[in-house]
Structure formats: C-alpha cells, structure tokens
C-alpha cells in the first residue's frame, strides 16, 4: 500500500556486471596497453573498442594520474572495510581522453583529462568503455621508472591479439546503482560551482602536503574550512564569507603522487556564503592534463542521493522523442552548448534542459569545470529507466496517480494517502517550499525535494497526469 513516506521506497538493488577483456592491461618498459570491455561508439556497440594508439607526451604525470583514478576506485573513505574496485570508465571525444571513477563509498568522483597537448599519435576516436586496471598493473604503475618514454594503447587490435573466446579475461563485479546516479548528480552539482581559488604550483604543493594522508579506519568525518589568502589558502575555524568547505580532507590524498608534476590547483565550490558543509572540487593541473577530485559534503555521504536532477526530471517537457532527438546530436562532443542543441533540434531551451536531465540519469552527460561546459559520454552498461533510479521521483508520480495532492488552502497543500498526511508549504505563486515529512526536516531541501514537494511541483507544472516515463496525458 502506498504510504507517501520516503521510507516506504524499496532500496535499489546492486547488479552484477561482467567485464570481458581480450587480455589483462599491462605495462611494459615503454608501452601501456589498456584493455577495453564493452563500449559504445559512433558505429554502435563494440565488444572491445579501440580509441587511441600513440604516446603520452608527459608520461610520468599521466601514469601517476591514471594510478590516482584507479586508487580512488579501489578505496572506501567511509568505513574502509572490504574490497572496493570497479574498473574506470574512459571516454574518447576526438581530441582527448577522460578517465573516471567513483570511490567504493560513492563520495569521491575522480576524473583525469588527458588533453590534446598530452597526446601524441593518431586521432583519438569517439566512444566510452570500461578499461581494465588490475592489481598487477597498479603495482607496475607505482614502480615505473621515471623518465621513460611511454606509448599508450586504449583498446587492442583484436586480430593482432589473436585469442579465442575461451581465452577472454572475465571479471564479474558489482555494479551499484550509485555509480550511475553519481555520474548524473555530480554533473548537475558541479555545473553550479564557481572557481573560488587558483593556486600556483608552489602554493598547491605546500597546501596539499599539510592535509592528512591515507584513510582513517574510524570512518569518522572531518570537515575543514579554508579561505583564499593571497596566492594560497589559509584555514579558518568556521564557515563565513569567502569560506570554502573541504569535507574529509584525507580524501584528497590521491593527489599526493602528482605533486611533483603540479602546475597549479583550482578550487571550485558553490557561490555565496556557506552555513553548513558543501561539496567542492579540487583540480590539480599538470603538463598535458588535469586531475579533478569532487568531494561530497561529508565522508559518509555519497553523491547518489543528492537529488539535484529531480525537479528537471519532473518537468513534462522531457518526452522520449525529445531525449532521442538530443541523443542523436551529442556524438561525444567535448563541449555541449544547449543553445546550439535547441537550434539544431528545433526544441525550446526548456525542453532541451529537461531532455538533457533525462540523458544525465543514464550517465550520458558530464561537466568539465575547467571549461565550464558539459560533455557527452555513453556508459557501457544498461542504464535502466529514469524512475527506477530515482525512488523519490517514482513516489511522487505514484502520489499523483493516487490523486493524493489536495488543493491550496492558505499557504498549504495537503498530500495524503490513507492515514499518511503531510503538509507542503507553498509560496504566493503556488511553488512548493517545504514539507512536514521527516525527510524535509532532516535535509531542508539540501538533498533535493522530498516526494511530497516534488508531487506538488509536478502538479503545478502540468495540466495533465504524468505517466511513469514522465510524458503528459491530456
């Protein structure tokens, strides 16, 4: 029976994903071969796509950064018990390579951008796939002799490898829904950030070396605050004007192996004066690339539950036809311009934003803070349905289907199903502003709207009913 309570939403399940590689990724003295498994390309799905063959112009820095991305994927920063490893995702968009991962706890997103000036070889392809970063490879990267030239191959020529199907290397790994939701939530979250500080190399190294190294075994959360001061950052005891939140400073330890290559550190955070911990992003630049770590507001808090996309997903403009039209135009573009998409597709800007939000739930949209622009990727596994990955959206649509949203009385709307009654406070224009449910009392909108507020906003936004995929029935 529908209760209208956030607690009534069943938990999301964890799927098991089979990664099949032609051979393990290996590092020889002068060549790094990264094996690929299952990917999307402009020509359709590929079992083992090949995206790049050439050399790294700054091999020491790039190898250390790739190792950092793999280390994040293998680490749980909150309650660090048990193994946590999922092979990174790589996206090629014609001129650069982006390697991405999430920590085992879901609260750290790592992305390495190997830029055009860091690559020397044939044109980079287009597509997205998983890459094998196994334990022996990680150890080899750690022990690699500095200064050696390093060729890079992302994907192998299957004919040259010449293995039979029975010789494929296969690993079955858990594929938690929080990875998919994390990809979606980090792009909408970071798109709202401003660059708050830019440190030159010496100050970046000095600051990062003052932070705790490693992962605390206690799982206790630590939040620090810093203020821009001249070319560097200085600590402050509390949030206030100009303050930047550094939640779980030990989570930046993945940047340490790159310090000798650093050319600068850029810090991004939400605008305005913070009153409580917020997410932030820390971008270390080095010759030929940059490594960005985005930290959730708390070490115990993963990105998957932030709810930043819910209002956009609730808009009825995001029909399947709009989503399909935009998906056909993206083509692994390193810079997505919504105005250009609106012109090319014939859709209104509002419909473009809503359709992009639906694509983002499948991990197809990322955000590059350095370029202040979204980019396209297409994750190499089944992303499922929008509602399946957003239980609050599913609950809100169920509330609408049950006709649970009452009329406006004064500044309140009652949302009731059976014995479960909640009061949603609305503004003068009917916009839902708050709720009496436990979710809102706990988060105050800081992790997106509750299902009751969302249902009221959806009622205000359409004159028809909304089906399970978000289309409007007149």
Work out the helicity level: 10-25%
Main beta-sheet strand count, sense and barrel state: 10 strands, antiparallel
Structural class: alpha+beta
Mean pLDDT, all residues: 82
Low-confidence stretches: 1-13, 158-166, 462-474
Radius of gyration in whole Å, from Cα? Answer: 23 Å
Walk me through this protein's architecture.
The structure is a single chain. The chain is an alpha+beta fold. Among the domains are: 157 residues, DNA Polymerase III, Chain A, domain 2 (Roll), CATH 3.10.150; 164 residues, no CATH class. Helix content is 24%, strand content 31%. The protein has twelve helices and 28 strands. The strands form seven sheets. Strands 5-4-11-7-8-9-20-19-18-14 form a ten-stranded antiparallel beta sheet, with helices on both faces. Helix 7 packs across helix 9 and helix 10 packs across helix 12. It is globular, with a radius of gyration of 23 Å. 49% of the residues are buried. The N terminus and C terminus are likely disordered.
Brief overview, please?
The protein is α+β, with helices and mostly antiparallel strands and 474 residues long.
Set down the secondary structure blueprint.
Blueprint: E1 14-21, E2 26-28, E3 31-34, E4 36-41, E5 44-46, E6 52-56, H1 59-73, E7 89-93, E8 97-102, E9 108-114, E10 119-121, E11 126-131, H2 135-143, E12 150-154, H3 158-161, E13 169-176, H4 177-190, E14 194-200, H5 201-209, E15 223-229, E16 232-236, E17 244-247, E18 264-269, E19 280-286, E20 289-295, H6 310-314, H7 320-330, H8 338-345, H9 349-361, E21 365-368, E22 373-376, H10 391-401, E23 405-409, E24 412-417, E25 420-426, E26 432-435, H11 438-443, H12 451-461, E27 465-466, E28 472-473
Parallel strand pairs: 3-12
Antiparallel strand pairs: 1-13, 2-3, 4-5, 4-11, 6-10, 6-12, 7-8, 7-11, 8-9, 9-20, 14-18, 15-16, 15-17, 18-19, 19-20, 21-22, 23-24, 24-25, 25-26, 27-28
Helix pairs in contact: 7-9, 8-9, 10-12
